[in-house]
User: Fold these one by one.
Assistant:
Number 1:
Amino acid sequence: MKIIALILCFIYALWASPKDTLIVAVENEAVKINPAYSEDHDAVIALIFSGLIRFDENMKVQPDLAKSWSISKDGLVYEFELRDDVLWHDGVKFSAKDVKFSLETFKNPKNNTEIYVNFKDIKSIELLGAYKIKITLSQPFVGFLDSLSAGMLPSHLLENENLNTSKFNQNPVGTGAFKFEKWKKGEYVSLVANENFHLGKVKSKRLILRHINDANVVTAELKNGKIDAALIDSSLLKSFEKDKKFKILREKSADYRALMFNLENEFLKDKNVRLALNYAINKQAIVDNILHGYGFIASHPLENSWAAPKEVKSYAYDVKKTDELLQKAGFKKNEKGLYAKNGKILSFDIYTMSNDPLRVSLAGILQSEFKKVGIEVKVVAKPAGSFDYSKVDSFLIGWGSPYDPDFHTYRVFESSQDTNKSPSGWNFGHYNDKNADEALEKARNSLDVNERKKHYAEFIDALYENPPFIFLSYLDFALVYDVNLKGIKPRILGHHGVGFTWNIYEWSKN
């Protein structure tokens, strides 16, 4: 891997970074450059495509392809006035027909879209004119407006295509700030400015997004001037702190790390075992020593959301409590100091992504913490996508969305989203709790914000009583960028720091 990294560094060293070109490193690479397959608003996708609405630096909803909208008092009917001055990147005019096509595409189960659950409640879509559309839901879903930040698709290019296999997914056409130019998989995507962008002039003519998931390579490339901006691992920040060639912007996020339990595991299906494991971890030590203060202790999945309760129950670091709960579950320590029951040692695997250094470190710490109290754990590190998250004993997981609190909660914890039942679901651990289900359903369908807060508090209480995860920590991100780069604005970030390029069309070099 080190040899490959050095070769890539040599190749990219040949690149220049002219004044009218931005080169930015991003961690993840989309499988398909298509908004139907990315709820996280992947960096490339968010730059090529536009939604009906967008979010500003304060995460407030703003018009995008829609000029204005109205929502009925019962939360069922949405009417949108659309812009009439927008062109697709191929020069064809955008219209309400494209919105109708996009929404029907998102809600069609045959398309296997990642965002299906956000559009499944659409009952009807009616064109009221070339630039006006009416959408009726079968039941209220308050997060629906946020869902419409998903990029719209061009009907004239896709109406006769199989979305799953279309070449469009590798050669996309949108209405966003940048036009697709080239995708060299595993290395970079190059984009050019959209001269007709409806939100304003794009200040850099070209943008290259380099896919690099090795933190050391990112650091080296910033230092040698081959990258203009990147999110940097907090452990590597010291080399930039006194370097006058760079600025550092600390950005908050909704992104958390946790250990997901598989409730089909013979040991982890026992609630008392999961509770015991929660008490066995010193989370503050993780924040101090692994995150270097770039984060805080996590207790639940909505701590950086408006829906977060002011007071929540949490698990203190208490190994005596761990012992009490394991004894309650029928475990006793054997002659080797390991907990066992009916002749079986309490042991399980923790799977993690080998290409994510933070998760590998966290898995190692968990293994060490559990060993201290007499629980045998094996860490298995494999490349992302090389194993089935829903089949392993446990998984070092990460979630978190800065958008409506329904995002990254309903699909992750609600029992109908169990991957055994729903291919598009994210409930990989097969969590099934009636109280959590009921609270999530009420929260997503209630029109009153205070009612929603109440139901999310009930949901968080349910997670505490019957934990599906060990919530470990929330992450802050450090954006390191060339001192000559202007126009960068902070915003609360999503999973893996997604969103730091949200206004990149305003970025420019001196």
Note: The longest helix spans residues 357-373.
Number 2:
Amino acid sequence: MGSTSAENNGTGGTGTSGVGRRDLIRRSAALGLISVPAMSLLSACASGGGGDDDGDSGQGKTSKSNPFGVQKGSKLDVVIFKGGYGDDYAKAWEASYKQKLGITSTHTGTQEITGKLQPRFNAGNPPDIVDDSGAQQIKVDVLYKNGQLLDLAPVLDAPSVDDPSKKVRDMIIPGTLDAGMQEGKIVALNYIYTVWGLWYSGKLFKDKGWEPPKTWDDFIAICQDAKKQGIGGLAHQGKYPYYINVAIMDMIAKKGGLDAMKAIDNLDPKAFVGSEAAQAGVEAIYEVVEKGLLMPGTNGLTHTESQTRWNQYKAAFITCGSWLENEQLKQTPADFDMKFLPMPLLPDSELPFEAIRAGSGEPFIIPSKAKNLAGAKEFMRRMLSKEWSTLFAKEANSLTILKDGVDPTVQLRPGTQSTVEASKAAGDNTFRYLYTEWYSEMGAAIEAASNELMAKRIQPKEWLKRCQAAVDKQAKDPSSKKNHRD
């Protein structure tokens, strides 16, 4: 996922604590997908604004095996964010689509999502299906408000490719549709199971005799020891403050529990100012800044620049989502032994150390003005088949939101395997913010405040004020009342 992936922005189970995770673990164990009997695939689809099917030029005769009436010989315009997962998986999908349905594809793999697609949306000539992800993602809430997204309910209610007696939505991990939801409708299919948190090198830790920290004091101690040895403590992708917000927001959720997280999503007047958890979380991260424990130069680096220096053992920790391993394949030493770590705990935290932000990332959308709506809907239906889910796992080293979605012969790499172990340990203790999907303007304001904080231009008290101001501004928007977490 390049720079911010769906949660890109971290997002995780249902909006509560990760519904269906135990089932997921059992299923993965049965699959024998990895040596660890645990896995969960989380949060995905959402349905939203605009778009009916009238005038669909790709519409032909419907049948049980062709519920949308896809026309053989029609063409599909596919745009894929070519970030951490690459785009080979989509090329494999398109080859299968052509072979089985006789539909050819125009394939674009790019990181310039906004640059290439905004003019097309503006002109009423969007692609048919888009992986709308990365640092230059066109924000889903903005597209939805402009009536530019298809409501995905017809796809989710269509017969499953693998078991036509069931709907597509019945084949998806429970609770995984939340991240793509706008005002109660599903308008984006967040396809990839993702966890967010800290990462470290198993080799470096073994060489230095460090134990993965479970408490914040132990985390700070390792960062201090690293600094003495000429190694940065914490690296972050400074030009994209989304990443450091993974750490800050995780600290808030783990300190104050799900209520502290939901207060932010629900635009509470005390979401930040007046929240003990928010104050404790941001002060903890600022401690790293104040004590000079950041990797030198990290505030001015892009995601790949910071991540590459971390791969070069120039920092003990980095914040990221689970696309990190794929994104850094070429830069990661063979014996690096990439590992995932939940955020360490502050004293008297409501959630346990094992709790993680987990959910779905990589939002796929169908524009309401797509020329081949039938072809796009059928393509998405097949994305949620075991065949295409397995193709994705083989090409992208990651799991999807489909139950039992990967052939047991597929083996995942060490970092991804460590997320499987973390998911098993977390059990039902997962959480996921939704403000990043619901309120992109507010999210950007919080990121801007975090950028100032990490550069030491403001202190925690001012950070809290700016974040609360962003919440209060968003709360004045009447449409905000249509999004709420219980």
Note: The CA atoms of residues 258 and 336 lie 34 Å apart.
Number 3:
Amino acid sequence: MTDGPIQLLHRTSRTATLTIEADAHLFALDRVLPWVLQLGDGTTVKTGSATSVVLSLDGLESESEYRFSTAIGGTTFRTADEPALVDIRDHGASPDSLDNTSAIQSAIAAVPAGGTLRLPAGSWTSGPLFLKSDMTLLIEDGAVLQDIGTRQGRTILSARHPDGRVLGTWEGVAEACFASLLNAIDCDNLTICGKGIVDGGGDRGDWWTWPKETRDGARRPRTIFLSGCRDLTMTGITVQNSPSWTVHPVLCEDVLAAGLTIRNHPDSPNTDGLNPESSQNIRLVGLDISVGDDCVAIKAGKRDPRGGPDRPTRNVEIRNCLMQRGHGAVVMGSEMSQGISDVTISRCHFIGTDRGLRIKTRRGRGGSVSNIRVHDCRMQDVATPIAVNAFYFCDADGRSDYVQSRAALPVSATTPKIEGIDIRNLEVSGAETAAAVFYGLPESTIDAVSIDGMRIAYSADAKPAVPEMACHLPELRHAGIIAENTRFSRLTRLSPASIHPDP
């Protein structure tokens, strides 16, 4: 039974993830909220205090009734059944070992359908691990699963499966890649949960010294790579120190990521936080992301002779998230050749990112970005809150006349299309270049843009700067809304903002 403001988002045999007043707050609650967790017989088993909308509970017993209570309401739930609990130590894993790969992989093989693999408190060093369907990976509080960090002898994922399906991918193209620390390939009904840490080993080895290169015949690994999966859930864990993109679901369906913390060094190259690519039905709830590149980057493959992920990305919900410091908070593209549609971003808080919502593409990519909604969000110290750019100068020919020409060129399958952007109730402080910039192609205008209720305060210390990565753009400072080759369906007057940061 669920009462009012407390909602059960997900539960396993040993964990539960709740939301608290999700419709009334952004990422953080407006006060510290004490809570009590009791068994069905009234025995108190845990107490604590919630400070954010998403709360993950761990250390629970399987097949048990619980009551979660606060001063504003509560909820009852029953943990899932558990055919078996497998501990990695029973298969030879040791915190003293320099390489637990074989032991942990043996433990994974021993988990029966519906069972749980337990990583207890301690530091567990490993190379790439391959998960399987119908299992839960429980990384307990105090546990650190850490990548060895070397590419010597590391498994390489080929560009394609034997049947021709895409397997290894790099920036939207089918390419061989080093296997990640955690890999899930063609898995169904998989959960990764707990309050432990997954450390991708980015600062070990030489990963960050060759961000755009191929070495030993492969591209850099991610930390968590999820390919061709369905009914996939990740809750509670911290993922950090990634060699490249941090969490990468590609060609996946029905994915929930809730209450994750994602951390990468601010100078680490291309270490995006979470990158759904050519996937559908994605829910990102209560994520706390601070990384070296984009926080959330939504992608859909890249037009290339080698091929790549060949499906659109659609039905993405991003809510109650905190995104800090990255180049962009929520970014779409530039790999979007199969199309991105139906993305809703609501009650999110962006702090110190270069851009808030960013859509980037160029001639030659094709595809479309459509039905994008940004509602009830807050942006603080975001240089360019809204940036939509159809002249993004990626790839070797990015600065060519073909890509950067402001003359109308013939429309073809390689002409991108952007339409249906709905921005409502957006509060901005510390903007620098402009409130929003829209740079559409003369042969393919940005259509059906609606801005209704945008309150903005600019940074007094802002210096003039180019707001987007394209040629022939002027430097801007406090420029309001700049639009070229853009049609608005609704545009209300900007109003001054009064920003009250979350506690």
Note: The mean pLDDT is 96.
Number 4:
Amino acid sequence: MNAMPEQLHPAAVPFMEEWPDADLRLLSSEIPEPPALPLEQVFSACWADWMRKAADCKGAPPDYVVASVLSVCGSLIGNTRWASPWQGWAEPPVPWFMIIGNPSAGKSPGLDAVLMPLKKSERQMREAAQGDINDWRAKAEVARLAESTWKEAVKAAIKVGDEPPARPDSANPGPEPVMPRLAVSDATVEKLAVIMSSQPRGTLLARDELAGWLQGMSRYSGGGSDRPFWLEAYGGRAYSVERMGRDPVYIDRLTLGVVGGIQPDRLRSLLIKSDDDGLLARLMPVWPHPAPVKRPEVFHDETFIENAVTRLLTLQMPADERGERRPWFVPFTNDARDLLDSFRQAVREWEVGTEGLMLSFIGKLPGVAVRLSLVLAMMEWASGEAQEPQEITINHFGRAAHLVEAYLLPMAKRAYAENAGNPAQRSARALLALIREEGWRSFTARDVRRKQRTHLQDMEMINPAIRVLETADLIRNVELPPGPKGGAPKRLYAVNPAVRGDA
């Protein structure tokens, strides 16, 4: 650690005695209140009633249950159905959700209300598949012996000049049955690629804590090779994974849902230390107030969600003229397209004056609304309240757009408040975090650059941050005399005790 916390430069001592009233807004960002969840305005009567009761039973805010329902239903639809407003634009129905809250906020119980029925269905499917796998393994053993015998016969025939025998059918056990994976909690990119290549409808990444996953993927440098994989997984694009010593894995449509929790402090640290305005912006943050501590007054019907999951699992990918499986593209009606155009214009207006992470987040909202409109339509079919949609109507898209405008957008402004402002302000917040972390009472720009923190890698970032903090009277310049060899004076900055919590 730098020696600065222990030794204050003598020239800075007079500057530590009195400070003017500082602008402390950079020290504590104002976090907006969470928006009200428009449950009844967005979801059908049966779904709204079930999600409210499930949240009450789990002691969690209904917001967490909503995020889990949309994530699970979207992943189950996966590549079987895509929403297509018009030719050339198609979206996979996989919204990504990040639920935010302290350890006691009920994140895991809210997720479990939907993830446990999903895992129950997966367990039943895996038990049924295990018998097929056992039969295949027995055939594979016979096939291995048949292959070995055939090869010996070929060698013998070649040796005496006879025609080699044809390979017997018994040497081919056929394709190995797939073990279903409806959700994974932690898996390497290579493992997920194998799952996706054999299960083309897609799957769901569901983690109690997203912090480790995000920290590994939310940097432009040092994120390894996983970042491109996940960027493509959001868009459902073709992807190939190269494997050491083995054949590469090709995936026609890499479509993966994501849902998980994160604590506010971990998110705050991630926002300060991250340059990400790409992958992080794909996650829909959900950060409500905790639910009241009370005994459940009602209990939810677990068979409702189990039946919905079962019905969504009956969806199949149709085959094209070449026999290759692909999504069924669900078109928009004309009035739904008109409403989408109006929504896109509104998004363009929201972008004005916005920068960084929020700008990237807002830019993705038209696609998010298109995805959610298909999920909402398919949820009503899964619950038996409607026929399977052949089109996305103005009602479907209107409710999705309302959820985005009235809830997801203000929720993102709440979650990303500490990443707001222009680049100089974001660098200033990063510098304040570094000062507090290092315990600096005084520092130089070179000390800052030496740490190589995000938003503070070079003087083009450091100097604007210093100017912002000087203007706010959170630091002040101390002019040092030239050294014995002369040269330009060294710039030292004294730190207002309020920054370190000493005032």
Note: The two ends are 24 Å apart (CA to CA).
